[in-house]
Amino acid sequence: MNQQVEIILLSLKVAFLSTAILVPIGTFLGWLFSRKTFFGKSLLEGVVNVPLVLPPIVTGYFLLFALGPNSAIGKFLDKLGLQLAFTWHAAVIAAAMVSMPLLVRAVKVAVDSVDDKLEDAGRVLHAGELHIFFKITLPLAMHGIIAGAVLAFARALGEFGATIIFASNVPEARTIPLAVYTYLNQVDGESQANILVIVSMVLAYVSILLNELLMRRFKHAKN
Amino acid sequence: MLKINLQKKLQRFTLELDLEIKPAFTALFGPSGAGKTTSLNLLAGLTKPDSGKLSLKQKQFYSEKQKINIKPQQRNLGYIFQESRLFPHMTVKQNIEFGFQLLTPNSRKFSFDEIIETTGIVSLLERSPAALSGGEKQRVALARALLASPDYLLMDEPLASLDQPTRLSFLIFLKSIYQKFNLPILYVTHDIASVINFADEVLILKEGKIVGYDKPMRLLAQLQTRPLAAGEDITNIFKLEIIRQSKSRGITVVKSDKLEFVLPHLDLETGGELLLNIPASEIILGITEPNGLSASNILPGIIENIYHLQERVLVEVNAGEKFTVEIVEATVERLNLKKGTPVYLIIKASSFRRLS
User: Fewer C-beta within 10 Å: chain A N or C terminus?
Assistant: First the structure.
């Protein structure tokens, strides 16, 4: 039982951290895709969105390729005495990578729905672009951003494929899905897995409910 | 002095503005799709022109040659939009403080209290924009723009969605703002009848080109097309003070700066202010002093100008205050009316329309 509690806490920690890292990046990217046109935009949008449909194992493999011990970044980190791959930090990065498209898409829709004429009204009132973003665009898109963050959090909790490749099934990175997988590979592991299965169903259901609620409030606030 | 020489290719035509606008209350008039809003956006810096130059007084806003394009934030132009564009997630107070707070105290032209008093929004400060009426929204938008200390006010048909009495009283108020703060206004509209009493000058924009720039009445007379649709009557508007009233005799006496009028009894507080409008077509014009008429207001005056608008004629009469009277061509001939002819204006008490 103690072991299960630790697994749940680790899962929550990984999901919270990955979401926390993701929110500023995803908000910026969503805003960028909604408001700006620039060279290479479609390409960048494709790269950000592709983990949505790519097998997570492939995303994990790319992460290992780019940040693993044999990569340039991995070698550089190694010199500093640091390691990313096969640690719980890798689980955070894998979860962030896979849930990013969900957040970016939600932010893009939310920012699209903010009337850019209000931003022009801000401009003639002396407001610089940053001020406009933080005082006008962001507050008006906030419900959508939070709804996207909740969805990204839920996706991070359920992340398996990219994590098992990039973090591998080491105990310090054993989140709920990896633990369920591990227990089911053991003789008589079902009873231990069942508790985690129930917890993950409850967490997933609550997250989806919260997301729905926020989206409804967002639509309501718009009208 | 606003010096404009800007070109911008639009879908149906190229907008080519080439003029200098004196600092005044200027109306920019034109049919829908003539490029009015785009013109304002070009001035404000919200739309980038293809080429040309733009400057206000000594400040260069745009120059294609010198590669100057001052951002809207630094142009110091107030802009009142057609749809008010109040920030929906802020209260009225937060809205009007938005631009004000971004200025250093030294660069603020007006005090906060002065503006909320003048625009009459003191009681609205804690409300949300969604809870305001159309007229209130535009007054808040005006307060917000004024508190940002503009050098010039651009207004894009801010009254299009309001009914005529609200529109006329807002225009009166706008004129007082213009006079009080000496703030030039460029006012875009497709309803020339409303602004004729207020604008010092009128610009006419057609298919992206300025085709006229003159005093409103003179321009109205020059217009090729019939400018006034039904219901868009030329009117005379006065701000009046109630000085006496008698219920038994059924009258209320009011005065402007120079004249007194007799109205039907209104049952209002003596000393109160009243906004009235007299349609130009409701005033009777005589060349001899009339006797034995039931009309309560007979005012001597002198014809200052006669404008011919096809079969309609607008006569400007100075009778202490300026009046516009609408008659027909036949009357001009029959009475031999000319500039300088002494006349009498006859206004029935029931011809006054109340605006406030």
Answer: C
